[in-house]
Amino acid sequence: MATPTPTPGIHHVTCIAGDPQENLDFWVETLGLRLAKRSINQDDPSTYHFFFTDAEGTPGTSMTFFPWENLSRGKVGTGQVSRTAFRVPEGSLDYWEDRFDEYGVDYDDRIERFGETVLPFRDPDGLPVELVEVAIPDDDPTVPWTEFVPEEAAIRGFHSVTLWVADPDPTMDLLETMGFEEAGTEQAQGDMAGDERTRFAASGPVGKYVDVLPTIESSRQGHGTVHHVAFQTPTDEDQESMRNAVQSAGLRPTPQIDRHWFRSVYFREFGGVLFELATNGPGYASDEPLDDLGGRLVLPGKFEARREQIEAGLTDVTIPRAESVEADD
Ranges for the VOC domain (predicted)? Predict the structure, then answer.
């Protein structure tokens, strides 16, 4: 089997939400991310697809959501991404705890993991999320979005995802095939206390870690769960080489699918987690000026001809703006 081009790390994480306005308010105003793209689920155009990123939609910063209002609450368990962690600058967790208190966010005590300080919390749908303090280098590729949160505390893309799988070994072998290297093990804390957490590291600066934990905890997809995690395969050639390697490992990746802002390949890894391989281009600024990202409902390709019908079926939402929030105070 030919060795594929190693992935630099996570490209995006896509989750399931409930109320679209509540989702927008939390991820834009409370957490301070930019709504870089407001679109639809291309496989189910009756629901939105929101993309929350840094200031420029840098690969490795996109937390995206399908607000399926009619679904019930999900249950995090085996075969899922159980935790999504973001990087924040060193010394900023005091700011975040104060902000969570102000906004009524459900959060837990800080923990230490692999020598880093982690602040676990949940979004309004119960999705488990974490902030991890790290040193942000001067040449970091992410660009902080500062409409609601100051630069010294702003989220700077992904830190890691944690995978819960029943049998970790095949998943860990796959991660090594994808270019991750084992970076250490330690005893898990919290709800998986006593189990061994194994960390894998990619080569890139953002979203470089994947942690694997064994569990047979039952799972159910719904509000507050992760739908899939996407890994960067920056070019079509990188993606094709990774697709071939995944297929040679015994998995069944889809053909390449054009998602308008990137091109994608999907497959379920051995533990049941839905993985995506995503190119870095053409990017979120390919169909909107950078200054206007997220300002309008973008309907890619064939969906534009159905705009009137699609808009009529979507819930009206208002994008939080700092000036509007200040005026209401």
Answer: 9-134, 157-280
